[in-house]
Design goal:
27% of the residues are buried. A hairpin with a 2-residue loop joins β6 and β7. The protein has 3 helices and 7 strands, in the order βααββββαββ. The protein is α/β, with parallel strands linked by helices and 139 residues long. The strands form 2 sheets. A 5-stranded mixed β-sheet has the order 5-4-3-7-6. The N and C termini lie far apart (33 Å). 22% of the residues lie in helices and 29% in strands.
């Protein structure tokens, strides 16, 4: 597993996440980690981001490499997060871990039950015409 590979963010995702972080007066925990992630991201035009790169509103199929289970999540802004529908907030530990990861890449995610080794099996990015996070909902 690569440590801190380059991540790609669309300009609109970068703007939405920057606005979200500006609304948090004193970022701590996952908000601080998100700030670190977007500061190292390569920001591209919305149509230039690799289609297999996880961004806001992406649907992500993950394989647990230890349990051989596949799960599907959608990465969302906090206001749309809902565990009943597998919608993960960008401010959740898994949300920050997923941001910018590409299909085929492995990563580790720390949970209360221990470290999980995950692989991104596939990514489905939202179409530009179906933007849900604009005009940048903050919560």
């Amino acid at each position: 597993m690569k440590q801190n590979p380059s991540i790609y963010l669309s300009k609109s995702d970068h703007e939405a996440l920057s606005l979200l972080l500006r609304a948090i007066k004193h970022p701590q925990g996952t908000a601080l980690k998100l700030k670190e992630e977007i500061s190292r991201a390569i920001v591209l035009g919305d149509s230039q981001v690799p289609t297999d790169s996880v961004g806001l509103n992406s649907s992500v199929h993950l394989e647990d490499l230890d349990l051989n289970e596949v799960e599907t999540y959608e990465l969302t802004m906090p206001s749309r997060a809902n565990p009943d529908f597998n919608r993960v907030s960008i401010l959740a530990p898994l949300g920050v871990a997923l941001l910018g990861v590409r299909a085929g890449e492995d990563f580790m995610w720390s949970t209360p039950g221990g470290l999980r080794r995950l692989r991104v099996v596939s990514v489905t990015r939202e179409s530009k015409s179906s933007k849900v996070h604009g005009p940048y909902s903050l919560t």
